[in-house]
Amino acid sequence: MRNKLSRSLIVSFVLLSAGCELINQPDRSANAKSVIEQQQKPNIVVIFADDLGYGDIESFGAEGIRTPNIDKIGEEGFVSRDFFIPANVCSPSRASLLTGRYPMRNGIPVAKNPMSHKHIDSHFGLHPDEITIPEMLKPAGYKSLMVGKWHLGLKEKGSHPLDAGFDEYVGLEGNFYKAPKNSVKYPYLKENDDLYRGRTISEVDIDLEKVTEIYTNEVVSFIEREKDGPFFVYFAHNIVHSPHRPSKQFKGTSEKGRYGDFIHEMDYSTGRVLKALKDHGLEDNTLVIFTSDNGANFAGSNGELNGRKYTTMEGGHIVPALFKWPGVIPAGQDSSITMTSMDIFPILAEIAGAELPSDRKLDGVNTLNILRGKSLNSPHDVLYYYNGTNLQAIRKGRWKLHLPRTIADQPFWHENSSGGRVHTEVAQNMLFDLKTDRGEKVDVANLHPDIVASFDADIQYAREELGDVHQIGRDQRVPPMENPQKIDRWWVKKKKKYFDNI
Ligand SMILES: [Ca+2]
User: Which of 19, 59, 199, 286 is found 20 to 30 A from 318 (Cα to Cα)?
Assistant: First the structure.
């Protein structure tokens, strides 16, 4: 509060000074007033890690990996220990962050797989009718930068970041993949290692080792250029998705091999971004958010949670989340109140003074009061866990119900969920008490048939509203393919080892 008060005192002082000038120079005064109004809107920086698990940073219990800069965001603000991502793979998670809606609603329920570009089915992207964060922020005066992994369709008409409201874009189309040189067999892979600037390729066949520094330089330079604000930065790392290729200066710096070294590089990058905000005097007026797109795969840690990326267990959907905004978000908060990545859209609308879309449903809720320490109640009574288009689990309060499903219901990545196929085939309802069993180890469905039955209405609602693998929902944006779950069977059979590129 002190910071906020001193800011408003400064603003009052500047207004008074402007008032003195008003006598002789009314035009300049009007400009000054408009600049002050602009400065009052906070800047926003969202740092989005890739496949970073619940146990992959120090403040969430990581060992052998040091993340002082990332953890500092939480120390100076708010640590969310129950932060739900409505997807367990890359593309749907990104679409939900940017639209505030479940993947089934926004039309990206499955991951775009760079390996499947020869299949027309995989040529889909974020629908132009979806309203994104930068599109929502633009009328409120924000300039927006997207840096890093897009993965929502770069070549598909209307899906490019510049079509989705960003003013500037530098990054990779999706996951990094080094195509075999002179590949005739896989010509569709060739551009997955090309760096784009805007709509054009600025560097062909870039090495993954180089991109984090390029991304970070871009963000730092944007902050400097746009320091008069307000601005929105969406910084989507390729770290710590495979392949794990840290740059030279970070190799060998962790006790967790290349995986930890890669996280060290992201931590260093985060430190540079925070320093840039500080150097330009923007620290107090910038909301910084750090989180991940889905849980860790085998190389990482999901801490006490079971399951991982590709699964609808908590390890696939609950990730670290850290927020800071000095003077608005009190420091040192450590919270287990449920929030979701879809909340970021309405939170940003509120703090930017922007209009929320009125012609569609948002699944995110404005939980700013939780961040401000003014509310202890999560508005998220019910959470839906989809694997691709398959409704697999529902969480209500302390209870989580896993629904029956067959192998045939699964998305094309299901075989990668684990060697033991964690929960990919479920014969009957399974109930877990997350309050006592966050690791989903003890099925108590038989002990609580009443609680299992209490989910019936929620299951029916989800299927009718958002759809399921064999059912189209009334507010589902249906992706343009015959069967989104199976778009990539061809690849699954031929190239299992490349699953990690989803
Ligand atoms: Ca991911």
Answer: 286
Choose the final residue of a domain: 316, 344, 371: 371
Which of 266, 296, 242, 281 lies closest to 71, judged by CA?
A: 266
Predicted local confidence at residue 417, as pLDDT = 63
- Under the banding of pLDDT at 50, 70 and 90, the label for residue 156 is confident
State the distance from the centre of ligand 1 to the C-alpha of 9, rounded, in angstroms.
44
Could you tell me if 345 and 457 lie in one domain?
A: no
Q: Which of 90, 127, 264, 423 is catalytic?
A: 90
Q: How far is CA 365 from the centre of its chain?
A: 16
Asked if residue 182 belongs to a domain, the reply is: yes
**Per-residue pLDDT reduced to its tens digit, 300-339:** 999 999 999 999 999 999 999 999 999 999 999 999 999 9
With respect to residue 321, please indicate whether it lies within any of the assigned structural domains. yes
What pLDDT does 186 receive? 55
Residues 110 and 253 in one domain: yes
93 CA → ligand 1 middle, Å:
8
For residue 202, give the 3-state DSSP assignment: strand
Distance 158 CA to ligand 1 centre (A): 23
Is-contact 91 152, C-beta < 8 A?
yes
Q: pLDDT tens for residues 421-477?
A: 456 789 999 999 999 999 999 999 999 999 999 999 999 999 999 999 999 999 999
pLDDT at 119: 54
- Is residue 114 within 8 Å of residue 357, measured between CB atoms? no
The Å distance, Cα 429 to ligand 1 centre, comes to 28
- 145 and 203 share a domain? yes
Its domain, for residue 462, covers 383-498
Q: What is the pTM of this model?
A: 0.89
Instruction: Evaluate whether 175 touches 238 at the Cβ level (below 8 Å).
Output: yes
Residue 214: strand, helix, or coil: helix
Distance of CA 293 from the midpoint of ligand 1 (Å): 5
151 is catalytic: yes
Whether 20 is catalytic is no
Domain boundary among 344, 371, 398: 371
Give residues with Cβ within 8 angstroms of 225, minimum separation 6.
none
The three-state (H, E, C) secondary structure of 409-445, written as one string: HCCCCHHHCCCCCCCCCECCCEEEECCCCCCCCCCCH
The count of structural domains within the chain is 2
Q: Is 259 found in the same domain as 284? A: yes
- Give the pLDDT score at 23: 33
In a domain? residue 183: yes
Angular region, 68: left φ>0, alpha ψ -120 to 50, beta rest: alpha
